[in-house]
Write a structure and sequence with these properties.
With 233 residues, the protein is of the alpha/beta class. The chain has a domain of 124 residues: 3-Layer(aba) Sandwich (Rossmann fold), CATH 3.40.50. Helix content is 36%, strand content 26%. The chain has a 6-stranded mixed sheet, sandwiched between helices. A 4-stranded antiparallel sheet has the order 2-1-4-5, covered by helices on one side. Bound molecules: adenosine-5'-triphosphate (ATP).
């Protein structure tokens, strides 16, 4: 397993948010974490990356414990994170946004140079001189994904990539994520269960900070009760 989250309990101040979340991601998998607004998806991601370390429980990456380790170390060791709010640098151009995120290449993987990123995301190549702040929501999402790749990750965490995007943009994002799936394992959070399950091998359903269901993408798509009770479909 590349990622093993075991029974994490996470607080914001005194608010008890994650009440024992466990999940795993295999080396060749795409796994989704599904749930409604406020279920705890973003908190799970932030906890894995290191922004909100768990008070109890463990996070292992490539077999090593990383809970409590600072974010920069986790990113440097190959965890690529695309936050829900994207955090593009608005005053830097598309190309500069990618250049500042570049990290050393990783052994055994073809490095994500700026040129390779532009080949993979032709839309970004066309916009390379545009300021991050002047991109549309969909363009910013592409840039946020490309920026995470510039760090040459071994694992990609995508937090609600579809949020606020028009259906045609979601379609092109779908193609992008499918292509990346061949390159590295991905953990994806989504409210849009159909989108996420069409891409994923397996999924977990979270509600009120606990995992209520896990199964293959087929099992989740067929389970009407889970969909009605825990997902907004
Ligand atoms: P969304 O789709 O809205 O992002 P989510 O499943 O990602 O939902 P989280 O953002 O993880 O949910 O939020 C889980 C719970 O934690 C919610 O009840 C939310 O109100 C609460 N919460 C989130 N951020 C904070 C914070 N900084 N301080 C206190 N409570 C917070």
């Amino acid at each position: 397993m590349i990622l093993e989250v075991n029974d994490i309990h996470v607080y914001y101040g005194e608010s008890y948010i994650l009440q024992g979340v466990s999940l795993v991601v295999g080396a060749e998998e795409i796994v989704c974490l599904l749930g409604r607004n406020g279920a705890g998806k973003t908190t799970t991601m932030r906890s894995i990356v290191g922004y909100n370390p768990p008070r109890r429980g463990t996070v292992r990456y490539c077999g090593k414990r990383i809970d409590g380790r600072p974010v920069y170390e986790n990113v440097r060791s190959g965890i690529g994170y695309v936050p829900e709010d994207r955090r593009i640098f608005p005053d830097l151009s598309v190309q500069e946004n990618l250049e500042v995120a570049a990290l050393l290449p990783r052994e055994g993987r073809e490095p994500w140079t700026v040129e390779r990123l532009f080949d993979t995301f032709p839309l970004l190549a066309r916009l390379r001189h545009r300021k991050g702040g002047n991109l549309s929501g969909g363009e910013q999402q592409m840039l946020a994904i490309a920026r995470a790749l510039a760090g040459n990750p071994n694992l990609l965490l995508l937090d609600e990539p579809c949020e606020g995007l028009a259906p045609v943009i979601v379609e092109s994002l779908d193609e992008t994520i499918r292509a990346l799936k061949r390159e590295m394992p991905i953990l994806l959070t989504e409210q849009n269960a159909r989108f996420a399950l069409s891409l994923s091998d397996r999924g977990y359903v979270i509600d009120k900070g606990r995992v209520f269901f896990q199964g293959s993408a087929e099992e989740l798509l067929e389970n009407q009760e889970v969909q009605q009770r825990y997902l907004a479909v």
